[in-house]
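User: Could you go from structure to sequence for me? I need the amino acid at each position, not a summary. Structure tokens:
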């Protein structure tokens, strides 16, 4: 066995004292002198790109991680890293079948931060979570991790663009959105998510379409980013333009919720969308959904969203 004396071991946040990888490491290196930095205590929430950029600094630094891609990225940069093989053995060698991105994201932060946990600008995200099931919460957590991992960190996300479409002629009415994200870490933009639902009829139709898109923005914790809303329906665009600047206290109805959501995005820009690639794609998507039964079209409980944000409306 190779001896590693006087190493500083960076223990990844997913490794606890009860983890199999920790037990295997202790067993394999019993009696050797190590110094440890446990990231869950020293830098909670730290992105992988910051570990690679700022913590693995020399030949006396090593990493202990259960994340196979991070292990391979550390090795690719010439650092020591330990992980478990598929059959549970500790290894500091490359793993077969693990592919690294051709152009990985780069760090955009100048210095190491004590913590990297998301700090919401308002209480809106936590209020919107109230009615979500554990399965839905897990889905949003997974989506947030995927987006941040793609760009390297939340700090590298620079702009969100959302195309919002409506098809009132469809049975029950259809609404939907595409969300595209851009960053500054050297990777191309990401088609992050999309969603569709049957909208309420009447004058609430336009408001519901924009509320649904913004609901996703907040739950993905992107409300602090510069956001462009490309709204295809003129009535919904005009309503949103009015509500984004209105100073009156919001009512506890769908228009009031739209006002709250619009006014608490850090930087929001509204544009009427009459043409373009996303416009045409949305039209094609609606045609496809109308012609077939799809589980992509979900049921949205707007009464519950209004109820969830009632505390925010009363306290502001």
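Assistant: Here is the amino acid at each position, in order:
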């Amino acid at each position: 066995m190779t001896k590693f004396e006087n190493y500083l071991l960076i223990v990844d946040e997913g490794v606890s004292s009860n983890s199999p990888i920790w037990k295997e490491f202790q067993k394999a290196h019993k009696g050797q002198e190590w110094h440890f930095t446990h990231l869950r205590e020293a830098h909670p929430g730290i992105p992988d790109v910051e570990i690679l950029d700022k913590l693995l600094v020399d030949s006396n630094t090593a990493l202990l991680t259960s994340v196979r891609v991070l292990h391979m990225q550390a090795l690719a940069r010439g650092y020591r890293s330990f992980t478990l093989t598929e059959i549970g053995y500790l290894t500091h060698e490359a793993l077969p079948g693990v592919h690294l991105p051709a152009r990985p994201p780069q760090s955009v932060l100048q210095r190491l931060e004590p913590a990297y946990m998301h700090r919401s600008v308002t209480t809106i995200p936590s209020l919107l979570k109230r009615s979500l099931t554990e399965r839905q919460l897990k889905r949003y957590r997974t989506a947030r991790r995927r987006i941040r991992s793609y760009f390297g960190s939340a700090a590298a996300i620079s702009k969100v663009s959302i195309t919002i479409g409506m098809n009132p002629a469809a049975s029950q009415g259809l609404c939907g959105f595409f969300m595209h994200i851009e960053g500054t870490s050297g990777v191309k933009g990401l088609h992050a998510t999309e969603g569709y639902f049957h909208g309420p009829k009447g004058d609430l139709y336009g408001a519901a379409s924009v509320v649904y898109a913004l609901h996703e923005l907040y739950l993905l914790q992107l409300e602090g980013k510069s956001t462009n809303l490309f709204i295809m329906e003129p009535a919904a665009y005009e309503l949103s333009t009015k509500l984004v600047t209105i100073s009156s206290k919001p009512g506890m109805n769908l228009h009031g919720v739209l006002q709250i959501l619009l006014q608490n995005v850090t930087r929001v820009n509204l544009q009427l969308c009459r043409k373009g690639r996303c416009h045409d794609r949305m039209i094609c998507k609606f045609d496809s959904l109308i012609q077939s039964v799809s589980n992509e079209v979900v049921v949205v409980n707007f009464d519950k969203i209004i109820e969830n944000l009632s505390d925010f409306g009363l306290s502001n």
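One structural detail worth keeping in mind: The chain is about 35% helix and 20% strand.
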